[in-house]
Amino acid sequence: MGGTILRTENLVKTFGGLRAVDGVSIKVDERTLTLIIGPNGSGKSTLINVITGFLKADSGRVLFKGEDITNMPPNEVYRQGIVRTFQTPQLLKSLTVLENMLIANVHPGEGVISALRKSQWLETEEEYVERAWELLKFLKLDHLWDRPAGSLSGGQMKLLEIGRALMTEPELIVMDEPVAGVAPSLAHDILQKLVSLKEQGITVLLIEHRLDIVLGYVDHLYVMFNGKVLTEGKGRVGIERVVNDPRVAEIYMGG
Ligand SMILES: Nc1ncnc2c1ncn2[C@@H]1O[C@H](COP(=O)(O)OP(=O)(O)OP(=O)(O)O)[C@@H](O)[C@H]1O
């Protein structure tokens, strides 16, 4: 484990009178897998939306590698080295698996066509194809390279979404429910892939409901409730303590 790559300080996001994120301070260490759990409506998605620039904070700060990135627009956050994946993979379903990989570097808000026309893209085209191919092999999607993305299974689409995120060579990947709706064996495959990303220097921050499947892969666990961090734990012992905390069972039973 290295130093802290991402930190939030007293982050607040309100919707009208509702404090969806209510003074959240978290730390994500380099090359770890950090998981945020919490019952529905506890503020997890809002928190990662604020971190990744999809929502503006009312107050508090987001620091990435020590730099203040609070309220930067998503494309700026992305340029800093943070990539986001969504619960529903954001794929272009009529394009092939390989094509989806190749257009992954299109900045949010930038048209696909104009990005593809860029001379800069053409210069690095060979490199991109190589990288896409390596990643497809890593994700065991290479045999599907010429299939339309829309013909993949739900789990394969999640993998392709991860592949697209990795095409951008991120330092931090923020994921919204990467194994939701995925069969257990493929879910474990996906999580093992995420663990092996740590060895490549990538840090993973994720939200996930399926604790039974995810917990064994996690280095740092945060529990959110009512917009706040209820408790947290690091390492086997710390995580075990959180999981056995009666307050955690209580919020899930209440929700
Ligand atoms: N755009 C919005 N406008 C108004 N209220 C919102 C908005 N987004 C979220 N909320 C509210 O903020 C609170 C936190 O929601 P959020 O989606 O962050 O929770 P969550 O922990 O991610 O839940 P889930 O696990 O169901 O995705 C909820 O009460 C929700 O209804």
Automatic annotation (TrEMBL):
Keyword Coiled coil assigned: no
GO cellular component: plasma membrane
CDD domains named among the record's database cross-references: ABC_Mj1267_LivG_branched (cd03219)
GO biological process annotation, one example: amino acid transport
One Pfam family in the UniProt entry: ABC_tran
Keyword list, A-Z: Amino-acid transport, ATP-binding, Nucleotide-binding, Transport
Domain of life: Archaea
Domain ABC transporter: 6-251
Single GO molecular function: ATP hydrolysis activity
InterPro entries per the UniProt record, alphabetical: AAA+_ATPase, ABC_AA/LPS_Transport, ABC_transporter-like_ATP-bd, ABC_transporter-like_CS, P-loop_NTPase
Family: Belongs to the ABC transporter superfamily.
PANTHER family to which the protein is assigned, alphabetical: BRANCHED-CHAIN AMINO ACID TRANSPORT ATP-BINDING PROTEIN LIVG-RELATED (PTHR45772:SF5), CONSERVED COMPONENT OF ABC TRANSPORTER FOR NATURAL AMINO ACIDS-RELATED (PTHR45772)
Role, per record: Probable component of a branched-chain amino-acid transport system.
Name this polypeptide is given: Probable branched-chain amino acid transport ATP-binding protein LivG
Organism: Thermococcus onnurineus (strain NA1)
